[in-house]
Design goal:
This protein is mainly alpha-helical. The chain is built from 3 helices and no strands.
Length: 79
Amino acid sequence: MAADDRLEDDLQEDELARRLREAHRRVRMLPSADKARLGRRYLAICDLAKRDRERAAARLDAFLAALDTPRSDENTCGD
């Protein structure tokens, strides 16, 4: 049973690592001003992932949602 639990933890770690890599790719493609701001936030999530995977996953969800949502000054009348 304990070995099965460890396998599940490994799968969760792999999923979090995959999502962190994807977030890194997305941050890397941003303009430099946004890249600096969001890069610091991304690094904080990576640091948290070393200590608390569940909390890091929740913060990563919010981070990715913010990346997917245009900022107010970028919105146009049609949005």
